[in-house]
Design brief:
3 domains; Nucleotidyltransferase, domain 5; 23% helix; alpha/beta; 7 helices
């Protein structure tokens, strides 16, 4: 099982009540980071993923949390991120909490063991309605009952709404998870396109992105921004480089810094984990 751990020498297991904990939970892996709120500095990250082409069961995730020396401690605040490819956006003026199931099933099929939840967004002024496996959803409810889970697009959209406002043309962002990716397009600081696609290979991702460029009449000279499970020298980067001129990774940003030990990790891979603390 691939495992990552980085921590600053100032990390103190007896001072967790001064720390904010952010945890990302899915069948594709468990990751968490710790923010020292006194210095506004990230001082620890741990991440564990199943072996290739495998998924973690809810029981395995619960066992990993229960055995972790930090996750069982008391923190000042806990933020939860739940990645899911099934979600839809509903403008706030049209949103009725009692109809969230109807909004969701209009666009998606609800699995027999899925639960529907909703998050309020500020930019765009909308709600994200999403479905997560019930057993996964109940994990943070057990360990951190006071924490309300966020869909992974909440911290992502919160970050990109600020990033996109400095771009004159189109702002295109591709965020990759293990079996799906989000494609987001902003124009003049406004979200114009948001969709999620399942993929089997790099060709699928290229097809969906380039087709969106064509449909929305986006110039191939526009910058394309990436986050999530991709790296500069992988096949995805090489494939996109054949068709698009300007590619770049987007790192988390906000009212925080990183310990020097984080120089060893590609921060864009954990963009939602690091950004969720800024969601309020």
């Amino acid at each position: 099982m691939p495992f990552l751990e980085l921590f600053d020498e100032t990390l103190d297991i007896n001072s967790t009540e001064n720390y904010d904990l952010s945890v990302q939970i899915s069948a594709a892996g468990l990751a968490f980071c710790i923010l020292d709120t006194i210095r506004n500095k990230y001082i620890l990250i741990r991440s564990a993923e199943p072996d290739d082409n495998k998924l973690l069961s809810a029981d395995a995730i619960r066992e990993m949390i229960a055995k972790d020396d930090f996750l069982v401690r008391r923190f000042r605040k806990v933020n939860i991120v739940l990645p899911s490819q099934k979600f839809t956006l509903v403008p706030s003026p049209l949103f009725d909490p009692g109809k969230k199931d109807d909004y969701f099933t209009y666009n998606h099929t609800l699995g027999s063991n899925d639960i529907i939840a909703a998050n309020r967004l500020t930019d765009p002024d909308a709600y994200t309605i999403f479905a997560v496996n019930r057993e996964i959803y109940e994990i943070p409810m057990h360990f951190w009952p006071a924490a309300f889970p966020f869909h992974h697009t909440k911290p992502l959209l919160n970050l990109l709404s600020h990033q996109s406002k400095s771009v004159q043309g189109h702002y295109v962002h591709v965020h990759l998870e293990k079996e799906f990716f989000n494609l987001l397009v902003y124009e003049k600081g406004l979200l114009r396109f948001s969709n999620t696609f399942t993929f089997r290979n790099i060709s699928d991702i290229l097809y969906y992105v380039l087709n969106t460029f064509k449909t929305m009449d986006i110039s191939h000279s526009e910058h394309v921004h990436f986050s999530g499970l991709t790296s500069r020298h992988d096949d995805l980067w090489s494939g996109f480089s054949m068709y698009l001129k300007n590619l770049e990774f987007v790192n988390p940003s906000g009212n925080f810094t990183f310990s020097y030990v984080f120089n060893e990790v590609e921060l864009h891979r954990y963009i939602n984990l690091f950004s969720v603390a800024s969601c309020g």
